[in-house]
Automatic annotation (TrEMBL):
InterPro entries: Tet_transcr_reg_TetR-rel_C_sf. This is TetR family transcriptional regulator. It comes from Novosphingobium piscinae.
Amino acid sequence: MALWRQVIETFEHEGERRLAERLPLCGELEAVDTALAILPDFLRSFAAQPQLTRLMLQEFSVTSERSAWLREHFAEPVWILLKPLFERLRDEGRLGGAAPDIAYFSMIGWALITFGNADLIHQVAQGDPTSPQWRDQAIDYMIGPVVASGSRRS
């Protein structure tokens, strides 16, 4: 378990570190501008390490010592960092009418599934999730509902 933790800490804390550094710099911006400034870079951290993202996806899907460790050392700290932003987005009429936790975890789920299954996407759809253009288009799509105004339901 020690080696496994070392690998996760080495790569995944980078995204959390960048969030912690960049969020205070966006203090005066509206929530939507903050989201557009920081979320793409954060989601790129999932794309940059597809094997690690896949490992996290697999571990989060079961209850285990590893999933508990991931939750405590990655999922919860990142949610704590981003929760105020998602609450501001809701207060500004964004998130497509969803609750902050629904919007956040849906976005993270998309990132885990998309970037954790790069080989499958390439095999099935001949897409190249490792190319910057494909990656950035996918990230823009993932962020779309987060910055969307109003309710998506009629």
